[in-house]
Amino acid sequence: MAAIQEVSIMMKRFGRGFALVSLASTFVLGCAGEGTEGTEAPAIQAAPAGEASVALRIERVARALDRGEDPKQALDEIVTALTHPAATATEQDEATLVQSRALEANGDMEGAISAVEALLANHAGDREWSFSSQAEKRLRKLLTGSEDTPKRRLTPAEPPVSIFAAELAKYFPADAGGRYRVRVLVFGGDRQVSGDRIGTFNVDGALRAEKEKTCPTCEVNVQSTTNRETSWVGIVRARAELASSLVVYYYDLEGGEIPARYDAALPLPSAEIKARLAKGKGLVAAKKREGAPPVILIAAPRFAQLDNVETTLAGMDELPLEATSVDVPESLEAEEIQAVVRSHFGAFRGCYEAVLQTNPAASGRILLDFKVDPDGHVASLKATAESAALRSMETCMRDAAQSFVFPAATKETSVVYPVLYTPG
User: Fold this and answer.
1) Rounded to two decimals, what is the model's pTM?
2) Any idea where the domains of the chain sit in the sequence?
3) What pLDDT band is residue 211 in, cutting at 50, 70 and 90?
4) Of 344, 393, 358, 367, whose CA–CA distance to 27 is shortest?
5) Residue 22: pLDDT above 60?
6) Top CATH class, 54-144
7) For residue range 31-49, what is the model confidence (pLDDT) as tens digits?
8) CA–CA separation, 368 vs 242, rounded Å?
9) Which residue pairs from 63-70 have beta carbons closer than 8 angstroms and sit at least 24 positions apart in sequence?
């Protein structure tokens, strides 16, 4: 079996050299029936109303909405199901989602959104429930047009204590019993850059470190919890806790925007955040609250730049109450290059397997040397085989790499990307 091994990425950014990054990882190679919709009776009138259970009523309304039948009748019917005395809690949840669809079909977008928000708020204490995924997807779809959530990475443990965490500790006084209660709510970003790695929001550690200075032998009672939501949808679930928690929002223009509907929760209006990010700079901002910890914003034009912005924030010794711009890399980050090239390994494998048909022992490296224009397209592409056995692959590799499309950046990025081929 043929194997492709990604060896390393070397990137050059207008005179600033990048160290070789080791990235060794190996990659190994019913029929539907004819529609009868035109001959069926309207879904809501499919059976006498007296025979319909709550579950059947909900199903009929959902089917009617799928078919584009009378939205007003659908709304009336789902309200009847929702308020039916025999409706179980689970049926009421399902009916609320269908009601949101019916409201949208009737042109009441505010009602459609509010219905889902109320449903999520009713389950604020439930981490998982029968329709949690559907409700989150629906709210995202209503407010952004897409129900997808950007994929995020994993978080290392044992964070250090940052300078900024020591500043935040001032907003968590001990109670009458000498206990510190720290609750942190994080929305957006990803788990690798959400504070754990560099201890940006390690208030627990900062409180313990400060106490140790004044009383090394004293026991410190800190009750600390951190809840992370990879999407802004979690704001709805956590509304009851926002007022008493340290709240952190991550914001980027690659799917990490927070809808303007929730501007009141942010240190700055979303329109202002977008306008500032459009200039190519990152952004940090904070908002003080009476009797509560502050609200923090970490924002960047691209998702991969959030780490740079947070690193700057972690070194601050006071709250950025005046929104502060942060320089971010103008060229693409190594992880952005990685993600795109890896997504084309299937095409590379096809190039290699063609060579193996005539030379089963063929192996070696091919260097992809190219530039990425600010609009994300590939230019000046070369594919150079270091082994004669792979020379016939150069054209195939070049053709495959020509279709790469990267995130837009402020400046051109130069890349040398070696790929190692070995027979399995």
Assistant:
1) 0.71
2) 54-144, 163-326, 334-421
3) confident
4) 344
5) no
6) mainly alpha
7) 333 444 445 567 666 544 4
8) 49
9) 65/98, 65/101, 65/102, 65/105, 67/37, 67/42, 67/43, 69/42, 69/43, 69/44, 70/42
Tokens of 65: 């909405």
| Mean pLDDT taken over the chain | 85
> Going by CATH, does the domain composed of 334-421 fall within 1.20.1050.10?
no
Question: 366, 411 in Cβ contact below 8 A?
Answer: no
Within 322-415, where are the H helices?
334-342, 345-356, 394-401
Structure tokens at 288: 């003080």
- 317 near 164, Cβ under 8 Å? yes
User: Is residue 323 classed as helix, strand or coil in its secondary structure?
Assistant: coil
| Alpha-carbon gap, residue 314 to 149, rounded angstroms | 26
Please check whether residue 322 is in contact with residue 287, taking contact to mean a CB–CB distance below 8 angstroms. Answer: no
* One-letter identity of residue 312: T
- In the prediction, which pLDDT does 370 show? 95
Based on DSSP, count helices (H) and strands (E) in the chain, helices before strands: 14, 12
What is the residue type of 28?
A: V
Read off the tokens for 215. Answer: 């009383």
What are the tens digits of pLDDT across the range 357-401?
999 999 999 999 999 999 999 999 999 999 899 999 999 999 999
